[in-house]
């Protein structure tokens, strides 16, 4: 199975970005018209921090997850797999990192293909066989090839600003102010912008997981191995104590399978259900066998 451009993903990215662009133009107009200078200054400062965070996203994400960049001497088999799969995906070899965690999972980070990192947990390496581990690594490399981290960071940039304005609106709008009414209008518009952005970004995020699964199948030629890995990971995550899960829940969007979070959490999850992903991979397996 050869790697093919995912036009479904590209169209969804374009439509989502276009809708977010229109939404943010309106948002910026409201901020300019109704907000006091302190709010605009806050938005500019926060935007500057976000750009710095994006530029150093690989280093910051690895540190926040407690991931340690490892050498080929420390994990020779893991490095060999990443290098081989990167060549098959026509990608530069990313940095390789390991997280000492019981939670079986993996993630990719980095602002572009030349500044990427792929991390796996020790729990993942203990849980999966080599073909399954290759499938998971290939899934993360597909995210890198599709530039998902860059797209999702840009897509969520002003949504995060809108959320912060809503969250801290009472602080900025508190007390007596000649512009109290304007501040409240801007806060309400910020809330609306955040809700719409949240829905659009979640829809794009779920589709990108399907796209990465298809990409992994193209890289390895073994959709069934990734399907098996997803089922194993899902089963093992359910056995992990809630305390361990809470420590890593903030990084849910980066993981190959999100941590359990109840019915409401699944409704607003960044990932589609494991069952739907496995079903897609089995369909791909049948297609490949028919060729």
From TrEMBL:
UniProt keyword Cell membrane, yes or no: yes
One GO BP: proteolysis
E.C. numbers: 3.4.24.-
Residues that bind Zn(2+): 139, 143, 209
Keywords: Cell membrane, Hydrolase, Membrane, Metal-binding, Metalloprotease, Protease, Transmembrane, Transmembrane helix, Zinc
Lineage: superkingdom: Archaea
Compartments reported by the entry: Cell membrane
Transmembrane segments: 12-33, 39-56, 149-170, 182-201
Cofactor or coenzyme needed: Zn(2+)
Chief location bin: membrane
The Peptidase M48 domain, residue ranges: 76-284
Record text on cofactor binding: Binds 1 zinc ion per subunit.
Record GO terms (molecular function): metalloendopeptidase activity; zinc ion binding
EC class: hydrolase
Cellular component aspect of the GO annotation: plasma membrane
Active site as annotated: 140
Lipid bilayer topology: Multi-pass membrane protein
Family: Belongs to the peptidase M48B family.
Protein name: Protease HtpX homolog
Organism for this UniProt entry: Natronococcus pandeyae
